[in-house]
Amino acid sequence: MDFVFLAYPKSPEMRLLCFIGVSLAYALIIFGNVLIVVSIQTEARLHTPMYYFLGSLSGIELCYTAVVVPHMLANTLQSEKTITLLCCATQMVFLIGLGSADCFLLAVMAYDRYAAICLPLQYPLIMTVTLCVRLVVASVVIGLFLSLQLVIFIFCFPFCQDRGIEHFFCDAPPVMRLVCATSHIHELSVLVAATLAIAVPFIFISTTYVLIVAAVLKLHSAAGRRRAFNTCSSHLTVVLLQYGCCAFMYLRPNSNYHPKRDQYISLVYIFGTPFLNPLIYTLRNSEMKGAIGKFLSRNFLSPKLSA
């Protein structure tokens, strides 16, 4: 039993152009996120909980894009754009699971900023290495668990004879359009999973930032307030970008699904957020810029200068 992807361009010229564009975007995503992970690992000053979570976020986004993008590149050049039922379910499990892990990890990063700003004296005791590792692992495990439950539920329903998916990859909304069932239980299951993975963490992040802003406004030093806001602004920008796309795709009834529009929205959270996150965190963070510059000069520029 195979599904067929219908969203890819038909003409060879457009397929080649799309292949080049997707390859370039994927290369930039890999370069940016790997650079962040390696720079954090090699710079001793960045061995703190905040940068540990940032490196973990980049690692999850590398895995997140690897689930979809290589398959998209292969389909762009192939005439037969098919995927088996099992492969489609597997792709959906890891896509939704790692995307949910992204959302949970952003909530963890918000708690880290809350502890650093509102509880500075207790911060070293609260955010231990053990707790940081457990929070990252819990984000991934809970995300994959929710995703697995949802995908099993969707694929338990019978599918119609029409096996064409109006999308570039296996995502929940376009696959659910192929389910031959009059019950709305499967639609409700997506809303429940999306609420747990998107709405609940976002409410937690919003509450945390209300407390952070209240604490920052009490600071007497203008430099201290500016430093605290700069620390949180990058994270808040990424949160709005990530949650905005995810909420639009999953926190809505299936009747509001529009194939063409949703195809382009999906490209934003597959390519846009993993590409923009490294830029946002590096351009607005002097410590990250310094660590990346030091890593690049030590590994790529120094040999050329010595030669």
What is the number of strand segments? 3
User: Strand sequence of the main sheet, in spatial order?
Assistant: 2-1-3
Using the CA coordinates, give the radius of gyration. Answer: 21 Å
Structural class: mainly alpha
Low-pLDDT residue intervals, each spanning 5 or more residues: none
Dominant shape: globular
Q: Strand count, sense and closure of the main sheet?
A: 3 strands, mixed
- Separate helix tally: 10
Task: Quote the distance from N terminus to C terminus.
Answer: 59 Å
Query: Proportion of β residues?
Result: under 5%
What are the secondary-structure elements, in order, as H or E?
Answer: EHHEHHHEHHHHH
Keywords:
3% strand; mainly alpha; 307 residues; 10 helices
Structure description:
The structure is a single chain. With 307 residues, this protein is mainly alpha-helical. The chain is built from 10 helices and 3 strands. It has a 3-stranded mixed beta sheet with strand order 2-1-3. Helix 1 packs antiparallel against helix 2 and helix 3 runs antiparallel to helix 5. The mean pLDDT is 84.
Brief sketch in words of this structure:
This protein has 307 residues and is mostly helical. Helix content is 78%, strand content 3%.
Lay out the secondary structure:
Elements: E1 2-5, H1 12-42, H2 49-77, E2 82-84, H3 85-118, H4 123-126, H5 129-155, E3 164-165, H6 172-176, H7 185-217, H8 222-250, H9 259-283, H10 286-306
Parallel strand pairs: 1-3
Antiparallel strand pairs: 1-2
Helix pairs in contact: 1-2, 1-9, 1-10, 2-3, 2-5, 2-9, 3-5, 3-7, 3-8, 5-7, 7-8, 8-9
